[in-house]
Structure formats: structure tokens, C-alpha cells
Amino acid sequence: MPASTRLTLTTVNLDTPDPAALARFYANLLGWDVEVEETDDVILRSADGGVGLSFQRERAYVRPTWPAEAGQQQMMMHLEIGVENLSAALDHALACGATLADHQPQENVRVCLDPDGHPFCLWLIG
Q: Is 43 within a domain?
């Protein structure tokens, strides 16, 4: 890549059958603001800036399975969310509408599923 070319990651997109609903979940979870809201696309961004989250309508959306199972829709990615108090963060996530995944592979991490089934990890910072 030429030295004069700069690439900047600005947004991570999640497919969803209902962009507004999933955006509300993550806005509540993270305390972020809606930057753009359209029928098929909603973008959230932290007041601090940085990489945002976008929720794009996918009419053929299939809920992922986690952990992976042969023949089932696989997750394509997951979000990592650092927390200072794992128990309090988990309580908050559940109150926002997340579910705790049945399989928990690490002691200092809690794998949760958002309302559309996308996994995300709450992990203890430090």
C-alpha cells in the first residue's frame, strides 16, 4: 500500500431484520447516541468518537448459533466489550434485553446474545 494511503475503520455493521430495535438495544447497553436513523440503516456512535456500530436491514436474516453447530448459521463476528465490574455489566446487559449464552468458556468473560442472537463478550478489564 502506498505510504500516502490512509485507511480508517469507521463503523462495524451488524445485519438485522429490525435495525431500529437492535440499535435501541445497543444504545441502551453502551450509552451511545443515534447518529443516523433511516428505515434500513441506523448508526450509533459514542460521544467520545471512535468506531461506530451500524445496523443494516437484512430481509433474509438467519439468527446465528453459538457456540457453532454443524449445519447451522455460524456467527461471522462478535463484539468485545471491556468492563470494570463483570457482575454489574452482566446485570445491565440482561436488563437491556440480552440473554446469557448457555456456554461460558472463560471465567472472566460472559458471553451474551443480543436480541437478534449476535454474540458479544463482556470481559473484565485488568
A: yes
